[in-house]
Amino acid sequence: MKRYSLFLFSTILFLFSCSQANKEGNENEAAIISAPKPVVENGILTPELMWAFGRVGSPAISPDGLKIIYPVTWYDIKQNKGNTELFSMNSDGSDNKQITTTPKGENQPTWRPDGKRLGFISAENGSPQLWEMNADGSDRKQISNIEGGISGFAYAPDQSKIIYLADVATEKVNPDLFKDLDKTTGRLMNDLMYRHWDSWVDTYTHIFLADYKDGQQITSGKDLLENEKWDSPVKPWGGMEQITWSPDSKQIVYTSRKLVGKAYSLSTNSDLFLYDIATAKTSNLTEGMMGYDQNPVFSPDGKYLAWESMERDGYEADQVRLFVKDMSTRQNIYLTKDFDQDAHNLTWTKDSKTIYFISNYQGTDEIYNISVNDKKITKLTEGIHDYTGIAFAGDKLIATKMSMSKPVEIYSVDPASGKDNELSFINKELLSKLKLGTVTKRWIKTTDGKEMLTWVILPVGFDSTKQYPALLYCQGGPQSTVSQFWSYRWNFQIMAANGYVIVAPNRRGVPGFGKAWNEQISGDYGGQNMKDYLAAIDNVKEEKWVNKDKLGAVGASYGGYSVYWLAGHHDKRFKAFIAHDGMFNLEQQYLETEEMWFVNWDLGGPYWEKSNQVAQRSFANSPHRFVDKWDTPILVVHGELDYRIVASQGMAAFNAAQLRGIPSEYLYFPDENHWVLHPQNSILWQRVFFNWLDRWLK
User: Fold this and answer.
1) Does 674 qualify as catalytic in the annotation?
2) DSSP H or E run through 673
3) Which among 9, 197, 479, 661 is most buried, taking Cβ atoms within 10 Å?
4) Which of 331, 356, 371 is the last residue in one of the domains?
């Protein structure tokens, strides 16, 4: 239900691989997970081949800009787990080679400021710890030995200190009320936010500061948030991008939402806090700025601090603004005031005069820059792709990029012309063996006379003289652009490989098309955005190569809600539905989710406020109210560890279909959250997905 960054997926892969790692001393060569050598039959993409792609993470660029170290994660289906290894190449892409091969993996590669060593996190000796090695992979040494392990780190620019992230326990969740009940598993709650996304709130992530000396082991550090009951970075999405060192190594700026319980569940007001090492004092740099303030980046000269800011408390999908603070005067400068787009992934030029950033515009994520002095914005790139991260290597930009036809790879980008060149080529061989569907862009007129960008993906081997079944893809978020993403679940190319036309509209309620387009959906669930969906499928189904009697609708999260809603309002357009982790009963959802700010903003408030017209309209459009009109086969999917939209929502929808006599199935994962992360579960998901669609649409 959010927009997700490359960092998020890198973090998920890191935590997943660490949690499943075994001790290196107990492993043999067969247990090492490396690049698979899959057999490709007839050029067709299969679920198994999906898991054969190497997943490229965020690159680390050497201080002199000459070397790039980057992680690649591979998965072994039989072992049902993945492992991350490190690669090295010159900044022009030459001398590209793998430098680690271990069963425990290496994550979050980070150059030491002197460029002589490379830091990374590994669970080689049990828990995730900081290790260092030479840039060629030699001379590995464990640097930290922190009880429970660490989840992130950053060197001070002068290399005198280091910060690391570690979890600290909350106060006892289960008070020791009855000493004779030593085996009880009960939890006693007295406030909200007792669980979040996929875990119970038993710990807080804090920042620790420690002295650093070359080769000396770190066993403890100073907790910068000691005795504070909140996280930094902010869970569940935040990582080291939410924390930064000042160039002189005297200060640390971090992101935190310093609220607990009910107050936390109602607010999105995170702030930037400056910690002064000499005085050990903390000050709030964004006090009075009420939305998300996060991802601070100092200019190289230390005069300015840039960050991403949202204006309104409680609105998690507010426009992302670019702010700069003059650190001497403490004046805030709103750089993108006249820019009706988001600004992410901020990167300064060496002269501290220009900031490069990524922004979505009409369905693609492109690179822009802005002059700090005159606020002039220049769009650098243009194409059918999504850039997901940028950093400078000398006078060149190093970027990660993906599309609906290609997973993430690393590129160099000319900061003057925007021309890019691929550097990593991790998946070149596998991609060369596959036949892919054609991705086309179409502008469709909506029922209220607007123009809506819709991606139409044609089946592999498309023949305009034949007819194909078509799938309406319903996007999650809700405020999440249908951009040029490569997904390992909702992958359009595997749908195309199975002979389907995919219709993926950027309906009302997604960014990249102006603030008004994004915000229209809030308080209007079941309204104009549903008309947008129907306008898209009604347009494409008129093509002679679409079988209008073989249409399906699929989606997850808000897309799952969309499918449930369409099931009661589609006027017999569709012959099959698939809803994954969707909201079915909005009254139930209001009290089941832990992030109350979301339902308060997007639904308008609680259902018991009878005079609240926005809320009453939202709850009147709850899909469960229209089950009497259901007449179409539906597959429901849900994970038990999804706490944003709990599994009872899927169970209720499935039960309703069963009681109505609607052909239906329920795919339940006891060990998955809002996503499906385990390889074998993912393949099961894909097989059930296409078995269901093929049964009703072919």
Assistant:
1) yes
2) none
3) 479
4) 331
